[in-house]
Every structure is written in C-alpha cells, then in structure tokens.
Write a structure and sequence with these properties.
The protein is of the alpha+beta class. The protein is built from 5 helices and 17 strands. Among the domains are: about 120 residues, Immunoglobulins (Immunoglobulin-like, Sandwich), CATH 2.60.40.10; about 90 residues, Immunoglobulin-like, CATH 2.60.40.10. The termini are far apart.
Length: about 375
C-alpha cells in the first residue's frame, strides 16, 4: 500500500511537462567596449502549440527609468529598434529561434548598459522568463608613475601610481626591476599600495620600478626610474638666481635710461632748429628798394627852387640805391605818377627834363 501511495503523489514528468527556460539566473561582468553574451535557452512541452514570442526587457540601474523593450521576436519577425541607446548593438545569437535558443549579444558595451536584463518566452499555454544582471566595468588605463618630492639622500618622498580611469576596486602591485630586484626592507609592506612612502632615502632605493594596477576586467602598468643623489648646493643655486635677476633688472634700467635720453636730445634739436628759422628776417627786394628811392626823389623835385636845381642836376640817376634804405609803403596796383616840372620861365630859370619811372621800376 505504501508503494502505491508514492506512485500517486509523484506523477510522471511527461504528464506535467511545459515550456521552461534552462539557463540559470546569474550575473555577468564585462569591460567597457566588449561584447556581452546573455544566454536564454528554453524547451517546449507537448501541449505548447501556440505561436512563439520572445521578448527581452532592460531594467536600467537608474530606478527612475521604467523597463524598456530592447528586442522582440513575434510572428516570425525580429524588431530591434525599440530602445535608442541599444539600437544596432543588440542581436539574437541564433538564426533559428524556434530551435530553443533565445540568447542575445550586446556589443560595444557602455556604462549606460548596466542593469537587469529579462528574457521572456511565450508559446501558449507555456510561459517562461529569466533575469541576468549585467555590470559594465572600465579597465585601468592611462596609468602614470612619478616621484613626488626631491630625490636626494636623507629626504622623504613618495612613489605614486595613478590610473587615469578604472572601475573599483583596484589592486596595485609594485616591483623593482633593477639592482638584482632587491627591495629595501621599509618598502616591502607597501608594495601593494598605490603610494609608496620613502623616508630618509639612501642610494639603496635607486633603480627602476614597475607598478601594475588591475581590476576584475583588465590591468595596466607603468614604470619610473628613481635616482637618489647627494644633496645639491642650494645656497649657490639661490645666490646665482638672485644675481642673475639683479643683472637683468640693471640691464633693463640702462636700456630705459638710454631710450629716454635719446628722445630728449631729439626733442631739443627740433626746438632749437624751429627757433632759428623764426628769428631770420625775410630778404629785401632790390626792385622795391629802388622804387622807394625813386619815389622819394620825385616828391622832392616838386619842391625844388632855381637855387637848388644846380646841385640836383649833378645827381647820378643811374646809381642803384642801397638795400639799407627802408622801404616806403606803396600800393602795388597804382602806376607811379609823373611829376610835372614847375614853370621856371616865370622865375627866370632854364627848364630841366624830369625823369619818369616805368612800370618795371626803371628810370626813363
């Protein structure tokens, strides 16, 4: 009787078989730029006779965003333009989805692709679904190694290893590549840190060091050369810098003084030359002087008497007056007037010809 009861409680699997997804739920970690394979394989039951529908949904890491359909198979057609952020980057891996493989590939992964992906398969009356959590990590890259401080004996300084980018958590590992790879005892405990602190440095620390930084999706490395040298003559260096600065200032002052002096000399020469030209009187005209001289003689002839005619007749009319005579004002437009000789017959004197002046100033 007990055996019969067991048979009744556990029926045959063939009787209860329906559509199920065989791929387990799990989490996938991939590096940025790589391709993520999201598996979703299923089997059908004998009673699942309806049309096959496959749907992939994305629940973004940002909880404020609603679930998004990223790819769909329905009516023997594929629709993959639902989600703009994944358009052209999500594809079914199988060319025959009815064979039981609804897996997809997401190419050129970006940080925005992080989230929970859900595969839903429906073939009435069977329905199945599964979830896959996808994490996109950034490989360490652009790692830089450098010394922070003065590499001199007795000084304290640091060796630093800094990647430009990389998803946490990051692991660091230092190695000494030279001097028989002998590490100073004080550094052994810090070889797994991003920063190594060196105190009271000696020449033992000199050598080539390599730092490797890694996370779950990749690694990167860098090298540096450390040379611990004796202290430099700092006092002499500072004194030399001060002297050089003073000499440069003196040279600048001399140049400024010379330029200012030259400008003053040029200004003075221009002022003196201008004053000399203003003090020189304009040259006198011979023609104007002669006209003034003849005009004065004409005026004097009108008042001559018989008693002084004899002395006047001895005057040489061809004599050119000197330029030392002052010019008399004379209108340039009016022709010189002819002076009439006095009636000497009444006075018992002999008439004398009076010289006249032409337009050009000569005596006629």
């Amino acid at each position: 009787r007990g055996f019969r009861c067991l048979v009744c409680v556990f029926p045959s699997p063939d009787v209860t078989r329906s559509l199920i997804i065989t791929s387990p739920d799990h989490m996938i970690e991939k590096a940025k730029g790589e391709t993520a394979y999201l598996p979703c394989k299923f089997t059908e039951g004998p009673e699942d006779q309806g049309p096959l529908d496959i749907e992939w949904l994305l629940s973004p890491a940002d909880n404020q965003k609603v679930d998004q359909v990223i790819i769909l198979y329905s009516g023997d057609k594929i629709y993959d333009d639902y989600y703009p952020d994944l358009k052209g980057r999500v594809h079914f891996t199988s060319s025959d989805l009815k064979s039981g493989d609804a897996s997809i590939n997401v190419t050129n992964l970006q940080l925005s692709d992080i989230g929970t992906y859900q595969c839903k398969v429906k073939k009435a009356p069977g329905v199945g679904n599964k979830k896959i959590q996808l994490k996109v990590l950034v490989k360490p890259s652009g790692t830089r190694c450098y010394v922070d401080g003065s590499e001199e004996i007795g000084n304290d300084f640091k060796l630093k290893c800094e990647p430009k980018e990389g998803s946490l958590p990051l692991q660091y590992e230092w190695q000494k590549l030279s001097n028989s790879q002998k590490l100073p005892t004080a550094l052994v405990s810090e070889m797994t840190s991003s920063v190594i602190t060196v105190k009271n440095a000696t020449t033992e620390y000199s050598g080539t060091y390599k730092c490797t930084v890694s996370n779950r999706v990749g690694s990167d490395q860098c090298q540096l050369r450390l040379d611990v040298v004796p202290p430099s003559n700092r006092a002499g260096t500072i004194a030399g810098a001060i002297i050089g600065t003073l000499l440069a200032l003196m040279l600048i002052c001399v140049i400024i003084f010379c330029c200012h002096k030259k400008r003053r000399e040029e200004k003075y020469e221009k002022e003196v030359h201008h004053d000399i030209r203003e003090d020189v009187p304009p040259p006198k005209s011979r023609t104007s002087t002669a006209r003034s001289y003849i005009g004065s003689n004409h005026s004097s002839l009108g008042s001559m008497s018989p008693s002084n005619m004899e002395g006047y007749s001895k005057t040489q009319y061809n004599q050119v007056p000197s330029e030392d005579f002052e010019r008399a004002p004379q209108s340039p437009t009016l022709p010189p007037a002819k002076v009439a000789a006095p009636n000497l017959s009444r006075m018992g004197a002999v008439p004398v010809m009076i010289p006249a002046q032409s337009k050009d100033g000569s005596i006629v």
